[in-house]
Specification:
This protein has 433 residues and is an alpha/beta fold. Helices cover 34% and strands 20% of the residues. It is built from 13 helices and 20 strands. A 10-stranded mixed β-sheet has the order 9-7-5-2-10-1-11-15-19-20, sandwiched between helices. Strands 14, 16, 17 and 18 form a 4-stranded mixed β-sheet that branches. A hairpin with a 2-residue loop joins β3 and β4. The mean pLDDT is 92.
């Protein structure tokens, strides 16, 4: 089997996350055999609508809605096992069982309750400088990984005594540092014992699920299987290339897709960037195209812009080409999937941010400094809207002329073709190029 996108395709968010990656992953999963997650954890929220039913994925690759497809949670992910098992049970309640076709990398790091406690404490201590994390322990787990004290999924099944010792050492260390140790030593011991007993149960359930996923990918590729890598968050939340420090704790770019799965960069044959037809952001950080007036509120209301993971209202603004072009540069985007074009249907006039000026001069590239980014003057291009329902359109030619012009302008300004256009919530509401 060969997809038109090659043997290995990577889907990447091109803005600040929430671009609608899950829908295209769901559609393209029919063409691929294996769908892999490469970074992040349950801070991701990929929403899919199938026949009016809403599915929200946090850890499990969203392609598992298709029968016979294999899902991989790669080594670059951080995993809270209670959340993983809850998600598995939720899927089963909808008649979708991932049993026997979901694998967790033995090199993926685990998130524990103490990581979640630390996340909350850190955000509270930062006050007005808080990043706006999902408070799911993602950052502290990656911190442990970088500090070389993290506990990996493979530790859970390779020897429970060694796992228990690492767990006890870490929870004691962090408890002393952040002040959440129980005052009563006996109660603290009982808490540790309860946690370890819970994870002993997980070790039994996971003994056939935790594998060397990099080796699995290699072996299945030799058998002709093809792979779709499902990115999480967005390029501008990347720990290196995002609007630091208002970023996530992992690499959300194509580079992260490779390091987070063990796929060699030279094996990636296509990259699809997901670009919402406007721009949203959750949490703190600079946002040059943000509209805090009536249009921004209208975008939020029509687009249902509330976090799939947190429920928080998203900040909304116009499409930012400077954001898109930097993502295209960093990821080597071959094609765009422009999502939620239908949300713009009620606007008589649309705006596109084509670039930035800073102190009267045009910026040649996306600035690294958040101080600069927060003070830029966006250059605005206005275009006429179409003000008609496009949710039934299934061909580019079916779109109103002004909607076609909007898409063509994106292609012109980014020098990248638009291959997919989302025109509604449901699985079939997609124009395929």
């Amino acid at each position: 089997m060969l997809s038109s996108l090659g043997n290995i395709c990577v889907i990447i968010g091109a803005q600040w996350g929430d671009e609608g990656k899950g829908k295209l992953v769901d559609i393209l999963s029919e063409e691929f055999d294996i769908i892999a997650r490469s970074a992040g954890g349950a801070n991701a929220g990929h929403t899919i609508y199938v026949e009016g039913r809403k599915f929200v994925f946090h850890l499990i690759p969203s392609g598992l809605l298709h029968k016979g497809k294999v899902g991989i949670i790669g080594n670059g992910c951080v995993v809270h096992l209670p959340t993983l098992f809850q998600e598995i049970e939720d899927l089963k309640s909808y008649g979708v069982s991932p049993d026997g076709r979901l694998f967790l990398s033995d090199r993926a790091h685990l998130i524990f309750e103490y990581h979640i406690k630390i996340d909350c404490i850190q955000e509270e201590r930062k006050g007005k400088q808080s990043v706006g994390t999902t408070k799911r322990g993602i950052g502290p787990a990656y911190t442990d990984k970088a500090s070389r004290i993290g506990i990996r999924a493979g530790d859970l099944v390779s020897g429970f005594e060694a796992f228990s010792e690492k767990f006890r050492t870490n929870i004691t260390r962090h408890g002393e540092m952040y002040g959440f140790l129980e005052e009563n030593p006996q109660e603290f011991e009982e808490y540790i014992a309860k946690q370890l007993e819970e994870y002993r149960g997980y070790s039994e359930k996971l003994k056939n699920m935790i594998i060397d996923t990099t080796e699995y990918i290699r072996d299945t590729r030799r058998k002709g299987k093809i792979i779709l890598v499902e990115g999480a968050q967005g390029t501008h939340l990347d720990i290196d290339f995002g609007t630091y420090p208002f970023v996530t704790s992992s690499n959300t770019t194509v580079a992260g897709a490779c390091s987070g799965t063990g796929i060699a960069p030279s094996k990636v044959e296509s990259v699809i960037g997901i670009l919402k037809a406007y721009t949203t952001r959750v949490g703190s950080g600079p946002f040059p195209s943000e509209d805090t007036g009536e249009d921004g509120e209208k975008l939020r209301k029509i687009g249902g812009e509330y976090g799939a993971t947190t429920g928080r209202p998203r900040r909304c603004g116009w499409l930012d080409i400077a954001v898109a072009n930097y993502s295209a540069l960093v990821n080597g985007v071959d094609y765009w999937n422009v999502t939620k074009l239908d949300v713009l249907s009620d606007f008589p006039t649309l705006k596109i941010i084509t670039g930035y000026k800073y102190k009267g001069k045009n910026l040649k590239s996306f600035p690294a400094s958040i101080d600069v980014l927060s003070k830029v003057e966006p250059e605005i291009l206005e275009m006429s809207g179409w003000q008609e329902d496009i949710s039934k359109c299934r061909k580019f030619e079916d779109l109103p002329k002004n909607a076609q012009k909007y898409i063509k302008k994106i292609e012109e300004l980014t020098n990248t073709p638009v291959k997919y256009i989302g025109v509604g919530m449901n699985r079939d509401a997609m124009i395929m190029g």
